[in-house]
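Pilot study result, target chain (70 residues):
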Amino acid sequence: MAKESLLSRLRSKSTDVTDEEGKLRKELMELRVQHSAGQLKETHKIKEVRRSIAQLKTLNNEVKEDIKDD
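Predicted structure:
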């Protein structure tokens, strides 16, 4: 069974995208601090969080386009 992506999960739920983006940005900042201090073992997490933020921005833009078209 494939892992459900963040984007598809947020499309199916009516959650606040800005809150989720804020959480991810905070997590990204913490990961960067850990990485710079040499404490981060799973450096791939930085890329995953950045990708999730981009997906949220995409979803937000899609919603804005839908509202503008109506």
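One observation from the pilot: Residues 47 and 63 are 25 Å apart (CA to CA). A full batch analysis is planned for the follow-on phase.
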